[in-house]
Amino acid sequence: MDAVQLAAVLAAVVLLASVLSVELGVTVALVELTLGVVAGNIFHLSSAGWLDFIAAFASVVLTFLAGMEVDPAYMRRRLSASVGIGVVSFLGPFVVVSLASYFLLDWTVRASLIAGTALSTTSLAVVYAVLVERGLTDTSIGKLLMSATFVTDLCTALALSAIFIKPNLWFPVFLVVSLALILALPRVAPWFFGRYGDRVIEPEIKLVFLCLLVLMVLADASNGHAVLPAFILGLVMSRHYSEHREEQKRLRVVAFAFLTPFFFIKGGMNVSLGAVGANLGLLGVLLAAKMLPKLGLIYPLARRADRQHGTFATLLMSTGLTFGTISSLYGLNAGIIDKTQFSLLVTVVVASAVVPTAIAERWFLPSAERELGTDRKHAAAESEEYV
Predict the structure, then answer these.
(1) pLDDT digits (tens, 9 = 90+) for 321-370
(2) Is 49-264+274-386 in CATH node 1.20.1530.20?
(3) Fewer beta carbons under 10 A from the terminal one: N or C of the chain?
(4) Where in the chain are the domains?
(5) Reduced to 3 DSSP states, what percent helix, strand and coil does the chain have, rounded to the nearest 5?
(6) H or E stretch at 88
C-alpha cells in the first residue's frame, strides 16, 4: 500500500472514529486507539515515514497544549498533592514491573528496566484529551490531574535518560535552546501575535509549530526528548493563552482535527494481536504489575486531595501511551527487547489507555458544569476571607 492509499484508509478510520465517538459518547482517543488495533491487524497495515512523523509531532503538540492548561498558581498551591500523586504513580509500577519482569518472566536486567520505565507512565495525551472533550480543563480536578501527570512523566523521562540514554555533544545545545525558547516565547508572543495574528493564514500557530519542530530536531540529535521542554513551553505560555482564548481554540482545532487522530491510530497499529495471543499469561503479569500498584498507591492520595473524585483521578492517572510507547520503541531499536516483548509492552500501554479511561468516563465522570460552579463558590469564599 503506497502513501496515498494508506492516507486515504486512515482518513476513513479517523472519520469513523469521530462518528462512533459522538454516537457512543466515548472519548474519541479511545475509539481511535481501538480502531488502530483493528485496522493494523485485520488489514495488516504498516506504518510509513509520513505517519511516523505526524504521530511524533502530534505527541509534542499535545504535550504543549497540555502544558497550556496547567494553572501555575494552582500547581504551586497544591504542590504537595501533585508531587505526591505523581511520584507514587511512577515509582510503584516502575519497581513492581521491573521486579516481575526479571524474576517471573525471566527477562534480562536491561529489558526488565525498560519494561518498568515503559509501564510507569501516565499519558498526558489521554488525560488531556479526556479533560478537553469533557470540559474539565478549568476545574480543580482537571488542574490536579494535569499537574500530577506532568510529575509522573518527568520522573519517567529522567529514569529513561539516566538508565539508558547516553547524551552526546548536541545535548548541551538542546538544553540551551530549550531554555532560550522557554524564556523568549512568552515575551515575543504578545508582540508577534498582536502584529501578525488573527489572520486566516494563522502566523501565530506557525510560530508555535516552528518552536516545537526545533525542539524535536535537537532532541533527536542529542538523544533527548522534546516532550518535556514542550510541556514547559506550554506551561509558560498558559497565561498568554488564558487571556487569548480564541488563539488557544484555533490551535486546538488544528491539533484535534488533523494531528492527534494519527497519533492515537498509530499507537493502536503498534499492537500485534498474534504475538499477544501467544503470550496471554505474560500479558496478564505485566498488566497486573502496572495497574495494581498504580491503583493501590494513587487512590489514597487522590482521595485525600479530592475526596469526591478520587476514583476518577486514580483511573486517569493509571493510563499510559506516549512515554510508554517511546520507552518501548527505544528498547526495541537499541536491541534491549525483542519484537515479542515490544508487542507485549505496547499492548499493556494501549490497554491501560483504553480500559481505565472507559471505566472513568462511564461511571466516575464529574459534571463539568457542577465542578466549575463549585470552584467559583470556593474562589468567592476565599476572596471574602482574604478581604
Answers:
(1) 877 887 887 888 778 998 889 889 988 988 898 899 999 998 999 988 78
(2) yes
(3) C
(4) 49-264+274-386
(5) 80, 0, 20
(6) helix 79-103
